[in-house]
Specification:
CATH class: Alpha Beta
CATH architecture: Alpha-Beta Barrel
Radius of gyration: 19 Å
Number of strands: 8
Oligomer: single chain
CATH superfamily: Phosphoenolpyruvate-binding domains
């Protein structure tokens, strides 16, 4: 089933947690492998991956083809880029380093058609049936499908309650948050935990899904038990490193070489 015909990410999260991963290698083949593995979504990383806008559009079209929800993390959202990514098939846009409620409102406005936003209309894309879908039906489908995601990675937000009203997913960036709190890497530090608790409480009060990175299956299970619905389990590059490194270590170990 293609992404156009599948349940939206937000709708799926109402039924169960969704599991995805970060994609740093912008190749359709990588997307297809992750889809075959059974992931619900991938986050195409334009912030830290060597990924161009053209690469990202290729990735989201590959996601559509294999039924994955393709999200793009953009370092600095702008209306033109956001619109083109959504028209290519992106199921959501993620913005890092959210600090103000106005940033959240601006992102949502870029992703919604009037009267709820300022997104411009274009129907020469697959979701609109390349112009064959009735205008109002396409607008409703597109608005319903595009998840608004922001990463909370700083010690404070100017109006946390207002920011939540613009979001579908509040994503905790624990490592960057620890750095902003002055304790790099110490995600259990009281200052970090206090901020995490603050964001969690605000999201739950607003009915916004919580998301975070899980570096292990144990962490993923703990997050799900804590009520998180959007879990990013590692990355494609991390999977590659973790698979290859022990193989080489085993082959190159003295014990293996002595028996070969």
């Amino acid at each position: 089933m293609t992404a156009e015909g599948s349940a939206t990410l937000v709708a799926t999260m109402q039924d169960r947690p969704v599991i995805g991963t970060f994609l740093k290698l912008p190749r359709a083949e990588v997307v297809e492998v992750l889809g075959l593995a059974g992931f619900d979504f991938v986050i195409c990383d334009m912030e830290h991956g060597q990924v161009t806008e053209s690469d990202a559009r290729t990735v989201v079209r590959a996601c559509v083809a294999c039924g994955l929800q393709g999200i793009v993390r953009v370092p600095e959202p702008s209306p033109g880029v956001v619109n083109r990514l959504l028209e290519a098939g992106a199921a959501g846009i993620s913005m890092p380093r959210l600090r103000t409620a106005s940033e959240a409102r601006d992102l949502r406005s870029m992703m919604r058609f009037p009267p709820d936003g300022l997104r411009s209309i274009g129907k020469d894309n697959a979701l609109a049936g390349y112009g064959t879908l009735p205008l109002t039906e396409y607008m409703h489908r597109a608005d319903e499908r595009a998840a608004v995601i922001a990463q909370f990675e700083s010690r404070e937000t100017d109006d946390l309650e207002a920011a939540m009203r613009s979001l579908d997913i509040a994503f905790l960036g624990m490592v960057d948050l620890s750095i902003d709190c002055g304790v790099p890497g110490d995600i259990k530090h009281p200052d970090v935990r206090a901020r995490v608790n603050e964001v969690e409480e605000a999201a739950r009060h607003a009915g916004v899904a919580l998301g975070a990175v899980a570096g292990s299956t144990d962490t993923a299970r703990r997050l799900i038990a804590d009520g998180y619905r959007f879990i990013a389990l590692g990355s494609d590059v991390g999977f590659l490193v973790s698979a290859v490194t022990p193989l080489l270590a085993e082959i190159q170990s003295p014990d293996h070489q002595s028996t070969s």
